[in-house]
Write a structure and sequence with these properties.
Helix content of chain B: 10-25%
Number of domains of chain B: 1
Structural class of chain A: mainly beta
Number of helices of chain A: 1
CATH class of chain A: Mainly Beta
Strand content of chain A: over 45%
Helix content of chain A: 10-25%
Number of helices of chain B: 1
CATH architecture of chain B: Beta Barrel
Order of helices and strands of chain A: HEEEEEEEE
Radius of gyration of chain A: 20 Å
CATH topology of chain B: Porin
Oligomer: heterodimer
Strand content of chain B: over 45%
């Protein structure tokens, strides 16, 4: 009987640990951020849908790859941006809880066509991260490139609508 | 008896073309390619691409299978980690059997400054003959320098996905 309890206890311990590892090593299916700062007075939102695309073996070992689709949009009152994003992310098995991602999008805004690249990371455990963004806009056959460092803060995807 | 033979012949007539259609080559779910640049002094890459069917569309040449491509590339040159994401799409060419035609974009913007590297690659990989090529454009900017754009051409060599390594032709 005691043996039975011991085996059960060890099994439960293993399962709990495995459960924690599994839970920590996956990004959520939806991640929603507010991005600060981009333009004075404007903090756009970014909603990302994350789907597993498979696993590849990289030099740091097996790595989960995720397909990302989403969008960037701004609250009312400021410049109205609303454009789709697509990208890819990964989680290293050696770097628990850190989701790295790159997303790209493009938009026609005030008569100027912009391409936007963002590379970022989000620690799904500590709930912090960073995003580096580059925006290129072409006007009068001249392209201007602007880079931003953005601080994402997680917001509920259920209430991501304009605050 | 005659009726049975007739039914069998009709069934066989249906099944043979169906089998031929089914046997049309598809891209593997994971393709790992090493890009051998031309000229060889350019940056070599190794790409590991996850390929997933997203459906078929009727294009000018008929129904065409489309695929989402996500993955990562390893870049020679001592970056740590030497890995970029890749995002793109691909389709099976209707005119050349087994030819998987894909286009991917990869970007990296290090947090150390306003420098960045964006790589566009268009490639062909024949899953039957195991041959291919890739070309693209690399846009890069280093701190304090203007943006530089370089064209990129390479031949393509399949490498095993289970033992991915940095490019063997690392300068």
């Amino acid at each position: 009987m005691k043996h039975g309890f011991l085996v059960f206890f060890i099994l439960a311990l293993f399962l709990a640990l495995a459960g924690e590892t599994l839970a920590a090593s996956k990004p959520p299916a939806k991640i929603c951020f507010r991005l600060d700062p981009v333009l004075p007075g404007t903090s756009p939102f970014m909603s990302l849908m994350v789907k597993s695309a498979g696993s590849v073996k990289m030099i740091n070992g097996p790595t989960n790859i995720y397909a990302i689709d989403g969008s960037v949009f701004t609250p009312t009152g400021g410049p109205q941006w609303d454009y789709p994003l697509s990208g890819t992310g990964h989680m290293y098995k050696t770097e628990d809880g850190v989701f790295h991602f790159t997303v790209m999008g493009s938009t026609l805004f005030s008569g100027i066509f912009y391409t936007i690249y963002m590379e970022g990371y989000w620690n799904v455990i500590d709930k912090n991260g960073g995003i580096f963004a580059k925006s290129s806009g072409t006007f009068n056959n001249t392209t201007a490139h602007v880079t931003y460092v953005l601080t994402p803060s997680e917001v509920s995807c259920d209430t991501v609508e304009i605050p | 008896m005659k009726q049975k033979i007739f039914v069998l012949i009709v069934l066989a007539l249906f099944l043979v073309p169906a089998a031929e259609t089914v046997a049309a080559p598809k891209p593997p779910s994971n393709i790992c390619l090493e890009l051998i640049p031309v000229p060889p002094s350019a940056i070599p890459f190794v790409m590991s691409l996850v390929v997933k069917s997203v459906g078929a569309m009727a294009m000018a040449d008929g129904p065409t299978g489309f695929y989402a491509v996500n993955g990562a590339m390893l870049l020679a040159g001592g970056m740590d980690p030497p890995m970029f994401h890749m995002t793109g799409a691909g389709h099976m060419d209707k005119n050349t059997e087994g030819l998987f035609h894909f286009s991917v974009v990869s970007g990296l913007q290090p947090f150390s400054g306003n420098n960045f590297l964006i790589i566009y690659i268009e490639g062909n990989w024949n899953v039957v003959t195991k041959t291919g090529n890739a070309s693209g454009r690399i846009s890069s900017k280093e701190q304090g320098s203007p943006i530089e754009d370089h064209n990129y051409d390479s031949s393509v060599l399949e490498v095993p996905c289970k033992n991915l390594h940095l490019p063997s032709n690392t300068p």
